[in-house]
């Protein structure tokens, strides 16, 4: 009996010695099982007073999405959004396309054309999407975008705004004030509609849409809303990153931080 | 030889103390060496013996019993959950749909069903297909309208599957204002300015085949002018 028990325990203890899981680099996916909507949670915040603070890139970002049959392309779409943003300054960044459009003295972004879709296809190759199963690694996003930018005769720099899965708020705000978009890599995330948080009194009611999986978005701002009760006590604070989602039906949204999920990595991107 | 043997045995027997007497004399010493071993006493016939049960066996036995309790409890819980009816959540998001451009012919057919679309310029359309079963969940038509006073970017959604959750879905519920223009009842509400500085309005109208969800973004905020232009 003693020998049996000793043998059994030896076997159990030996398992981690012989089975060492290989750590795979995380890939950023979305689209067809890369990420999925887990649930929509109705949220109600009663308040007596609310205060808001916001920093954003004036004019926002172009709102592109993928219409190809390629899968797990969110990193390619994010890269194209960054390129479309800088294309209004460097018109040859996306060939045969001018991303800026002037309407009654207002500078807006043009709708995507085949030229933008060709750019996404090119990024799919340079970023080695789906070479590692499930999308694009952060490293390949950076090198792939750099390859594309260099091919167009430009340079690119990246500045980290996420450290230990935590937003470096000062660096993030500085990037926004520099008018540099930020590529953000998230694992699980909460999205809120940009028109949802508009209550002027009594109660803020909105839905949090919670997603599981990995996704890449492009940030163009940050909004903080603080809710106070009648005695002036802070009861709730929402810290919201303004993002271009890469989705066709919901091209912009807020990612609610410190709620659900992880900010895996993020980079201020400057093309010059 | 036999006599010597018997004598030696007798001497050994006489010099040896009875076990109990020897144990009592050395009990303290023995307990220092075998400190934590609990003892139990058993009677085997007329002889009382002390039996030491090693702690390791107690520990393993306790571990096995605990593991059994956990396994049995988990099985019972699982069975209980399995027998209770589960309400499935059928909703899905944008990551579950493939978006493709609508062909011109399809856009033309939609313009017949929604005649207001004829008043827009630069019209294009997409449809979203659910990857699980290949069904069309939504069609989206977008276009522009320019008047003397304002410029409008217009999107209209035709929903075929209510389980498809796009981010603004809930914002179309309980719109504040209502107006009737011709045969069309329009529920609408201002959603403030977006991050591009455009004034945004949401509206819902009803047709024979279902509800249409409108999003109008304009430079000057003249939404009522747009209503008259579109539905009169």
Question: In words, what does this structure look like?
Answer:
The complex is a heterodimer of chains A (272) and B (232). Chain A has 272 residues and is of the alpha+beta class. Chain A has one domain (2-271). Helices cover 25% and strands 38% of the residues of chain A. In chain A, strands 2, 3, 7, 10, 11, 12, 13 and 14 form an eight-stranded antiparallel sheet that branches. A two-stranded antiparallel ribbon of chain A has the order 1-6. The N and C termini of chain A lie far apart (74 Å). Chain B has helices spanning 2-15, 19-33, 55-83, 104-113, 223-231, and strands at residues 39-44, 47-52, 97-101, 121-130, 136-146, 151-159, 177-181, 184-193, 199-207, 210-218. In chain B, a hairpin with a 2-residue loop joins β1 and β2 (47-52). The interface between A and B is large, with 49 and 37 residues.
Helix-strand layout with pairing:
The complex is a heterodimer of chains A (272) and B (232).
Chain A: H1 2-18, E1 27-28, E2 35-46, E3 49-56, H2 74-87, E4 100-103, E5 106-109, H3 114-126, E6 136-137, H4 138-151, E7 156-160, E8 162-163, E9 166-167, H5 169-177, E10 182-192, E11 203-228, E12 234-244, E13 252-256, E14 262-271
Antiparallel strand pairs in A: 1-6, 2-11, 3-11, 4-5, 7-14, 8-9, 10-11, 10-13, 10-14, 11-12, 12-13
Helix pairs in contact in A: 2-3, 3-4
Chain B: H1 2-15, H2 19-33, E1 39-44, E2 47-52, H3 55-83, E3 97-101, H4 104-113, E4 121-130, E5 136-146, E6 151-159, E7 177-181, E8 184-193, E9 199-207, E10 210-218, H5 223-231
Antiparallel strand pairs in B: 1-2, 3-4, 4-5, 5-6, 6-10, 7-8, 8-9, 9-10
